[in-house]
Amino acid sequence: MSNVYVAIIGVGGVGKAFISQLSSYISRNPSVSLAPILISRSSKALVSQNYAPLNLEKWSEELSSNGTAPPAFPEQTLAYLKAAPGPVILVDNTSDEVLASSYPLFLAEGVHVVTPNKKGFSSSIKLWNNIYAAAANGGNPLGGYVFHEASVGAGLPVLSTLKELVETGDRIKKIEGIFSGTMSFLFNSFAPLDGNNGGKGFAACVKEAQQLGYTEPDPRDDLNGLDVARKLTILARLSGLQVASPTSFPIQSLIPGPLESAKSADEFLGGLGDFDGEMTKVKEDAEAKGAVVRYVGSLNVETQEVKVGLETFDKSSAIAGLKGSDNIISFYTERYGNNPLIVQGAGAGAEVTAMGVLGDLIKVLQRLR
C-alpha cells in the first residue's frame, strides 16, 4: 500500500494518548505506510510542507518550539490535505462543533474522517444526513470513509455492535443503559446496592465526584443530561429513528431550577445541599421497593420513544450491579429475546477513547487495501 497520510487536530488528553498509540502502532506494523503530516491545536500546528512524516516521538517539543499558526479551517486545511500525494485520514480529537460541521466538505473531497467528537453525529439531523451523503460508507463512491466508534462509550464496541446487529437483519427493539461514567460513579456512590453510603447526601457525592475528576469542572455540564442525550441520539439514528436533535426528547436535568443560573461551579455546589431532600426521597422510595435508582438513557424503536433520566432497577439487574464509573449498554433485539446483548466496561478516559479512535483509523486502512 502506498503512503496513507494522517492529519491530527486536537492534542489534549485524548489527542496525546492517540499520538502515543499511533506511534506504537506504526512501530509494530512497519509494512503499513502511515505518514503523519499535520498535528494541530487551536493556536499552533506542525505542518509537513513536503508531506514527509512528522516525528511522533518528539512532536510535543517540536510543536512548542517550531509550531506555526495552524492552517485556516476549513479552506486552507482542506486544500493542504487534498494536495497530499495519497489518501488522507483526518483525525478530529476535539469536541468542536464548528469543526464537526465541516465533515461533509472533507468527506466529499475523499478525505477520510475518524473522531470521538459527538457533535457532528448528535446535532441536527440535517448535518447527520449531510455527513453520510458525502461518505463512502453512506453511498458516495467518491467520498471518504467516516467512523466515530468512540463518540459513544469511548473504546467500547457499542456502535460497531449495533451496526452489525442492524446489517445482519436483527430487529432492534430497545436499547437501555448507563452512558455516562460521571453518572455511573455518582449513583453508585449515592445509592449503592447495600443502601449504605455512609450518610452522604447527593450534594456531597457530587462534590466527591468533582474532586476525584469524574465530573466536568462545572458539574452542571454533566448533571444537565445533555451528554447522555447526545450519545442516545447517535444510537437512535443508527437504529433507524429520525431524531431531530438531542433536545427533541425528554431529558431529566438533575440541576435544581434555582441553581441553573448560579454564576460559578462553587456557587452551584454551595447551594446544592439545600435540595438533598428531593434526591434522598427518590433513593429511599426505590429502596422501599427493593430497587436502586440510576441515571439512564433508553430508546424504544417500536414506540419511537427516547428519554434520559432517573429510573429504578431491581437490585439483581445488570444495571444496578454496575461498579465504579463503568458504562453498560443493553441491546434488546428480536434474536436475543428477553436476555439482552450487553456491552460493559470503562466508557471514558483518554487511553480507552484514543483506542477507539485508533481502531477506526485501522478500519479505514483495511478498506484502502
Helices and strands in order, then pairings?
Elements: E1 4-9, H1 13-28, E2 34-40, E3 45-47, H2 59-66, H3 75-82, E4 88-92, H4 97-100, H5 103-108, E5 112-114, H6 119-122, H7 125-134, E6 146-147, H8 158-167, E7 172-178, H9 181-190, H10 202-211, H11 220-223, H12 226-238, H13 265-272, H14 276-288, E8 291-300, E9 305-314, E10 326-333, E11 341-346, H15 350-368
Parallel strand pairs: 1-2, 1-4, 4-5, 5-6
Antiparallel strand pairs: 2-3, 7-8, 7-10, 8-9, 10-11
Helix pairs in contact: 1-15, 9-10
Describe the structure.
This protein starts with a strand and ends with a helix. Strand 1 (4-9), helix 1 (13-28) and strand 2 (34-40) form a beta-alpha-beta unit. It is globular and about 65 Å long. It has a 6-stranded mixed sheet. The protein has helices at 13-28, 59-66, 75-82, 97-100, 103-108, 119-122, 125-134, 158-167, 181-190, 202-211, 220-223, 226-238, 265-272, 276-288, 350-368; strands spanning 4-9, 34-40, 45-47, 88-92, 112-114, 146-147, 172-178, 291-300, 305-314, 326-333, 341-346. Helix 1 (13-28) packs across helix 15 and helix 9 packs across helix 10. With 369 residues, the chain is of the alpha/beta class. The mean pLDDT is 95. Helix content is 39%, strand content 18%.
